[in-house]
Amino acid sequence: MSALQFELLARSTANRARLGRVTTPHGSFDTPAFMPVATAAAMKGLTPAQIRGTGSQIILNNAYHLFLRPGGDRIERLGGTHRLMRWNGPILTDSGGYQAYSMSDTAVLSEEGVTFRSFIDGSKVHLGPESSMRVQNQIGADIIMAFDDCAPAALPAEDADERRVARTRGVVDHALRMEEAHERTLRWLDRCVQSHARKQDQALFGIVQGATNLDLRRRSVEGVCAHDLPGYAIGGVAVGEGTEAIRTVVEFTTPLLPDNRPRYLMGVGYERDIVMAVAAGVDMFDCVLPTRNGRNANAFTPQGPIRLRNARFAEDSLPIDPSCDCEACAGGFSRAYLRHLFMAEEMLGPTLVSAHNIRHFQRLMLDIRTAIREDAWSSLLVAWPCIGSDEAHSSTDEQT
Amino acid sequence: MSALQFELLARSTANRARLGRVTTPHGSFDTPAFMPVATAAAMKGLTPAQIRGTGSQIILNNAYHLFLRPGGDRIERLGGTHRLMRWNGPILTDSGGYQAYSMSDTAVLSEEGVTFRSFIDGSKVHLGPESSMRVQNQIGADIIMAFDDCAPAALPAEDADERRVARTRGVVDHALRMEEAHERTLRWLDRCVQSHARKQDQALFGIVQGATNLDLRRRSVEGVCAHDLPGYAIGGVAVGEGTEAIRTVVEFTTPLLPDNRPRYLMGVGYERDIVMAVAAGVDMFDCVLPTRNGRNANAFTPQGPIRLRNARFAEDSLPIDPSCDCEACAGGFSRAYLRHLFMAEEMLGPTLVSAHNIRHFQRLMLDIRTAIREDAWSSLLVAWPCIGSDEAHSSTDEQT
Fold first, then answer.
1. Which of B309, B333, B351 is the best substitution to test chain A (most A C-beta atoms within 10 A)?
2. B215 in catalytic set
């Protein structure tokens, strides 16, 4: 028996959206699913009870952060992150590759993996397919991700990171670099599959790369899906290429993936992006937006985001969203109070607004699942005006 | 009918400890009571539900912070802090005088009050008996405190603040300064009583001053208790004078206060100080220790405090205190995980350890109340070894 089962329960006739259910050793989650990000095995100020209160059924940990601190060996001795953070539901870990590469000024990419300096103590560390599998095995997530080579969508001339990598690799042509990343991702997937083979209780997902080059995307799908894996992800998206490019890639790539496996669009995104991707047939999403924006006093509402530091909220007795049932809104905390908390730098502010923002995304997913079940896709636009609004999206370059 | 009722329910035969119950317009609390401090109308990362989960029945707000931000007029328009922070139990506010005087380098003390610069925008602001009553009226606390002149216990030569005040006032003799503070506190109490007279739903407590001079303390009790007030506080304690001096002042002053009124020892303190003061007949306590230490990874246990950043906890799977029923301990969060949260600067760490620390003090108060009810005072020392330990107290100069 596989570590993961995926049932398809309904399909929308309006588009390719699917309703499903994924079952893991730590329970099930409904798809389309939104996974909030507990980077270092903590969802910022939220306790597991508060995370559950947002309706989240599965959460994400970042292998990169946990690899550096407290370290894979220590986490393993402590029984993995389920036990450590007292979250008994499903957990997914990313491979750490993207962050090792993008978060360090000193990262050097090679066929072996990424070598970089730890942001904690400056020591030189290496992360590659085998060590990524190892740390994800140690963390004990229910779903783990292949270690991939995620080439930025931007041209070298426009992207400092990519220029540096291009220099270190002697690659000066962006098309060549994308080709290289695609092929290396396939070679690394072979190594991940082999390295992970012994762990039967964790489901390894492959990741399709290819940036905005649709021919590369097609070839990546073929290469990745040559491995019969419990799920597949679309990576290299939401790395600065813009909403329309995301749409083009997602609508092209998703239908190429096996119908009977969950499909995960990594690091996306705003409500509009999620709805677009669900309509294209994506089942799983993660994004740091709810917590990152929550920490910065930016609250999501169905009508679009509001900035709670704005003086116009100073005496506003309404909750963030009167229609919301989250801990902050149903608890009766006013915009005026939340603004005060941020002005006074009280950490209850980030906690409450993060709880609200995660609930906002989970309510969207609830409505998406209802729209599929009832085959009433167009009802979504009525309840969620932010889906159709350009104002609601100041940026789409949000990656975990 | 007064805004506050105080019932005495039992007395210890071993000492002067009393068991009681105070009833306010927002409900009752059992005495001896510990009041955790929600400085700016927020108990750091804890929601009101989490505060209630610690067993806290009454909390404290700081008028000084709320006076400066968001301001008394705004708080009044928003319906007071009960409504603002969604805490429907009793609230006590301090007068703001001590903080206005001690937290600003530019404070100038005069018969009118304290003039200082706002730490928020540098503007010149004034707080005196009338404006303190006004802001406390606006906040809407159930118990409000008289605006007093709190002279530091240290000699001018040893205390930079006091030297400065002495200079600005032309007072160079510490005994004269203490005398002045005592007499001014009485004059200011007259002004507070007059200014507050119209508000019948808030109980005004008078504050006894006199530093470590017992003759001044006696005269202060006489002067303050000349006003028939619903409660009385001992102020000017835990401002740097040391444990033995606190004990001397508390054991001398408390029995002089009316038996049928609650007695509040301001800004105290460690477990040992609280137990000593309860034995002397004190009914109410507040201290920032649980939350301040919680933010710094210092956790209280019945055996004494532990520093969770210590490397020896890195793989310790025990909770902070296996006997504790708080959200952190009963929730199964290990010392190893809490240490990780602090090392990773995750705000869940301060939240969980603050919740534990407040619960620690509330469990002490529960045991104190049981010891009085069952007239078994000596049982306390067995369950709370930290009461008798010198190691457990690195400092006693904690003031809210």
1. B351
2. no
Residues paired with residue B10 on neighbouring β-strands, in sequence order: B19
Q: Which residues of B touch A330 (CB under 8 A)?
A: none
- Please answer whether residues B234 and B214 qualify as being in contact, where contact means their C-beta atoms are separated by less than 8 angstroms: no
- Superfamily of domain B5-286 in CATH is Queuine tRNA-ribosyltransferase-like (3.20.20.105)
- The model's pLDDT over A130-186, given as tens digits with 9 standing for 90+, comes to 999 999 999 999 999 999 998 765 544 455 565 555 555 544 577 888 889 899 999
Q: Which of B159, B273, B286, B321 is catalytic?
A: B286
Q: Is the ipTM here above 0.90?
A: yes
User: Where along chain B do its domains lie?
Assistant: 5-286
* Cα→Cα distances A133→A126, A141, A148, A337, B124, Å: 13, 11, 12, 45, 60
| The amino acid at B113 | G
B49: Cα separation from own chain's centroid: 21
Q: Is B286 a catalytic residue?
A: yes
d(CA A346, CA A45): 12
Which distant-in-sequence residues (6+ apart) come within 8 Å of B341 by Cβ?
Answer: A40, A42, B348, B349, B352
Q: What is the mean pLDDT of residues A344-355?
A: 98
* The pLDDT of residue A121 is above 50: yes
User: Inter-chain contact A347–B347, Cβ cutoff 8 Å?
Assistant: yes
pTM for this entry: 0.93
- Type of residue numbered A108: V
